[in-house]
Every structure is written in structure tokens, then in C-alpha cells.
Amino acid sequence: MTTPIGLDFGNYHSYVCAAQRGNLDVLANEVSNRSTPSLVGFSFKNRYLGETAKSNEVSNLKNTVGSLQRIIGRAGDDPEFLAQQKFVSSKLLPVDGQAGAEVTYKGEKRQFTATQLTGMYLNKIKQTAITETKSQVSDICIAVPVWFNEQQRLAIKDAAAIAGLNCVRVANDVTAAAVGWGVFKNNDLPVDKPKLVCFVDVGHSSYTVSVVAFKKGECKVLGTAYDQHFGGRDFDALIAQHFAEIFKKKYKIDVNTNPKAAARVMAQSERLKKILSANSSAPFNIESVMNDVDVSSSMTREELEEAAAPLLKRAHIPVEEALKRAGVTPDQLDNIEVIGGSSRIPSVKEVLSKVFNKPLSYTANAEESTARGAAFICAMHSPTMRVRPFKFEDYNLNSVTYSWNPVEGEDVSELEVFPEGGYYPNTKVITLHRAAAFDVTARYTNPDTLPEGTNQFICKWTISGMQGKEPAVCKLKLRQDPSGIFTIEDAYVAEEVEVEEPIEGAEPAEEGGEIPTQTVKKWVKKTDLKIEAQGLGLSQKQLQEQIELENSMIMEDKLVADTEDRKNALEEYIYEMRGKLEDIYADFASDAEKANLREKMEKIEDWLYGAGEDAKKALYIAKYEELASIGNLIKGRYNAKQEEERQAKVAKKEAANQAKLAEMMAAKRKEKKDADGDVEVPDVE
């Protein structure tokens, strides 16, 4: 049995939650953290994923890739992708036309697309889930920002497939949080008049506002808006730049010219930001930041707010846009739920309070609510789990038009099928008359309203399989699926047939009489048509190649880890035997055995720190067995003696217990004899 999981795919770190045993459990990783850094690193031997990438980040800057959420699914020349370079320490560049990064892996320059890098990261998440749930994991719901377009959503699904996961749904992150909130509050939700809740999510790199209408067992996103460049990292960057200017004047050093120094300043800026959330001032100290210079300064909360003033001035815009799209005013809102790790910044709280002019609510878990909602959504898709039904619809941010080449007699060659402000999942059916194969193309209707760099093209489908020379009635089922992806779900030739149907409102037939009917014409499916898609996702061949590459890298990582384990086991054996040979094992080995073992341990230890520093796994095993062939004999004698002494103690204890039991039984017999009056009485003269 597999366990459904939900992932809040964050730009800085991610949360994974499992639906198991009737609960939604956020899972801890290998170092017991409930969040995992969204980082992928590379070394001479293997890859670093998640926590290990974070712990090696400062010493491995050029080979550590972050901001995966911001680069996946983007074109290599997308200005938004290129702008991420200031936040990413590795080299970003186009790879096969897609956003990617160049790193040194196993001593060679390698280039990976953002989809591949995300697939590597998702594999780490998968292994964490398998370890924590002690079950197989295959289905996942991945929560992404609402501004993810078609290309980005397809890239997420491809990345999941590379990791061996079936992405049952790509959910908007705030919508997932709303679903989790609604499921938890379901018993308190109204049946008729909806409860209006505004969710405000201030994350690491972006800020989203969604207005959601709740009823018992369902919710609908009425409107949503966002700012892609308002988040915790933007505050960090402001702080880092503030101190960079101070250090340039005070210490005559420019930390921005040194990648390692800049990374350390950025990390310290993040820590200072968190301290200022609870304190009015905080120190800023870094030892030997660069050129052996120690730097020291401080910042007050007022100074941070002054530096962030241009950022904070934009905070009202997504709120106003979301409310406008939803057609509601702040006073109509029943709740304002604030989530996201950066929502704790005091100045952000203050601005939001002023914008809404209402109290803010923090009942939802700021970091984990999205992952919990995603896990519930995944469980809804699982055939092996029973969950309470909870229906939800999302808001379509961008209008989409389907077009085709018209034939003679057709006046229409395109149709806005899924308008902005509509809800999805949604299905529409269009009818075209065709005698031969034809193409249908989907594109975003209004390129001017799209974020810079967004590909207007969505997909091109070729429809074929018509029979006969006369134009057939071709019906196309167009769909915006639950993941927000646009498809042609079905295509078929229909024919009109006459059928008999009961007359609506007619008097019921008498017993044994005929039911009144009428003849009506209906369209019915006659022949399925073939649909071939040419979209923005990976082809089946490309996907298979990347799956095979990922699997080979997994095996290489496993070999490196196993080799390191065998090396550590050999090293530990030497340390253990050296100490115990002069102590508890001293009486269990002859002088010749001790001398032989000492000599071998000394030689192998010298080898370990010399030629054996980077040996093969089999060699470490052979060296271990060479020592164990002598050491385990000595250890066996010691263990045999210990067991002999233990058995003697057990036998002695059992004998004592038996003696004590016999004494107790004798005492009981004596007491019984006295009670029966069978007692010897002295002679009385």
C-alpha cells in the first residue's frame, strides 16, 4: 500500500506531509527538521540534496543550485530567469533552450535543466517520505505559486516523473492552504450563505492574496492576485546591501566582490531579520568575512522599515486586486488568515492591518498549512484511502483562446474558451466540421497581461481519423484540468440520431399502459478521433532519457554512501580494537596475536589516511575482514567468558531463589500444622 503525500514546494525550503492513519502528518527529514532546504549541490563524488546541500553551501557555492521554484519551467532567455542569478550562487544559463545551471560534478563541467534539478530534489523528498512513513510512496500533490503558467506546471509534472512520482495534481499553494483550513473547520462552515475568508501568503520570494468562499464541504477561490518580487529574500537583500555599504566605508572592503563573503552576509541578514521580528535592535557580526577582516555593526527595527519602505509601499496592491477580482470589500470578509514564513515581519503585519482595517488571524499554521492541504488533496485522488468529500474550484488568472484554420463556410477561426476570472476544473465542447486531419492551437489570449517572459503559446494538437469524403461533425472536449493545464481531453465524430424519450410533464400511464413518448434528435459518439499533442512539456523520449540519467545518479550516490559507510566501519573497528586490546581483551589474546593485530591495524590506518583515502568499497571490506579474522577471535573469547559468567550468575541467582522458595514452603507447612492444633504439648505433672 502506498501513502499519499503533499508537498509545499517552496523557493527556500519545502514541507512534505503524509496522509496516513486518519491524520495529516508533516514529516521530519534525516536531521529531524520539518522543512527541507530547496537546494541541490554537486561534488567530486556525489550529489548533495536538501540538508546536505545546505550544510555544504558556503564551501560549495559554485556547485549549489537554489531558487528551484523560480527557475523551473522558464525559457533560457526569460528575463525573470536571468534575474535570479543575484540569488543563486551557481552559474545559471540556458540548457537546451530551457532555464538551467552549470556545475562541476565528478570533476567535469555539467549542465542540467531546472526540471532535472527539481527532479533530483523531489527524489530526496520521496526518500524522506518513504523513510518516515515506512511505506511505498508514488502519488503526490505539489503546491506551487498561483502565478505558475502552463509551461511551469508541466515542468513540475515532468520533474515528479523523473523522481518516480505520479503527480496527481499541481495545486495552487494558497488554494491548498484554503482546502486544509476548510477541512479542519468543516463542521463550523455554513450550509447556505458562504463564509468569505481572505488568505494572505507572504513567502520567501513572493506574496499572494486569495479570497475564498466556504460552505460546508466545499470552497471556491473568488479572486487572487500576487507580487512575484515581494518576499522574505527581498528584505534579506535590502539588509545585506545596507551592511555592504557600511562595511565599504568602515572597513574598506566590498563584500559583493567576493561570492563567499556575500553569501555569509546574506545568511547573517536573514538571521538579523528574524531577530528584529521579536526585538527592537540586533547586532550584526561576522568574523573574517573577507581578507581576514572581522566586521561588526547593528540595526534597529526602524532602520529596517526605512530601508524596506519602497517594498512595503507595494503591499496593498495584491490585496486590492484580489478583492476587486472577487467582487468583495474588506468589510464583507469574515476572516483574514495570514500564512507564510515572512508574515511574521512586524512591518508586514502592520501594513496588512492598515490595508484591511480589520484584525488579522493566525489560526492556520504559517509554514505547514499548505503541505497539509496538499496531502489532503492527494488523499482525495487515492483509490485506497477514504476521506471526507471536499469540493473546491480555483480561479483562472489568464484567459486562453483555442484557434484553428477555418474551412469554407466557417466564419469563426478562434474562440476564447477559458476566460480570465473563470473557475476550474472546467470543460467546454466545440463542434467543427472536417473531412481531413486538422490542427487546433491554444494560446494565452492577452499577451500584454502576462508576466514578462511568459510564452504565449500553450499547445498544438493534430486531430485525425475521419473517414469518408464528406465533412464529419467533430466534437472536441476542451478542458482546463484540476492542475490548471489546458488540454483537448477527447475528440470524436458525432452523428445525429432519433431516439424516443418520455414526454416531460405527461400524465403517468395507467397500469399496463404505454408511457407517453416523443421522438427527439440527439448527438451521439460514433468514432473516436486520434489526438497528437505538441506542447511545452518533455516528450516521452526526453522524459525516459532523464529518468534513466536520474536513476544512474541515484545508484552512484548510493555507492558513494555505501563506500563511506564501509570506510567509517573500518576506521571505527581500528579505534575500538586498539583501546580494548589493552583493556578488556588483554587476557584473551596471546602476545603474538596482540603484536600481529597491532601491526596490521597500524599498517591499515596509515593506508586509510594515505593511499586508501579514496579507495573502492570492496577494498575497505577486504581490509575490514583482514582485521576481523584476528580481532573477532579475541572478541569471541571475551564474549564467551562474559556469557559463562552471566550463566553462572543466573544459576547462582536461581539456586538462591529455589532455596528461598523452599524455606518459604517449609514455613507455610509449619504454620498450617500449628493452625490444625497438631502441636506437641509439654507433660504437666
Provide structural commentary.
The chain is α+β, with helices and mostly antiparallel strands and 685 residues long. The chain has four domains: 294 residues, Nucleotidyltransferase, domain 5 (2-Layer Sandwich); 81 residues, Actin, Chain A, domain 4 (Alpha-Beta Complex), CATH 3.90.640.10; 130 residues, Substrate Binding Domain Of DNAk, Chain A, domain 1, CATH 2.60.34; 104 residues, Substrate Binding Domain Of Dnak, Chain:A, Domain 2 (Up-down Bundle). Helices cover 38% and strands 28% of the residues. The chain contains 16 helices and 29 strands. α7 packs across α8, α14 runs antiparallel to α15 and α14 crosses α16. The termini are far apart.
What is the name of the CATH topology of the largest domain? Answer: Nucleotidyltransferase, domain 5
Helical residue percent band: 25-40%
* CATH homologous superfamily annotation of the largest domain: ATPase, nucleotide binding domain
> Overall 3D geometry?
globular
Number of strands: 29
- CATH 2nd-level architecture of the largest domain: 2-Layer Sandwich
Main beta-sheet strand count, sense and barrel state: 6 strands, mixed
Strand content: 25-35%
Number of domains: 4
Backbone structural class: alpha+beta
Level-1 CATH class name of the largest domain: Alpha Beta
Mean pLDDT: 93
The Cα radius of gyration reads: 35 Å
* Count of individual helical segments: 16
Question: Which residues sit in consecutive blocks of at least 5 with pLDDT less than 50?
Answer: none
Whole-Å distance between the termini? 93 Å
Pfam families: HSP70
Protein name: YALI0E13255p
Family: Belongs to the heat shock protein 70 family.
InterPro entries: ATPase_NBD, Heat_shock_70_CS, HSP70_C_sf, HSP70_peptide-bd_sf, Hsp_70_fam
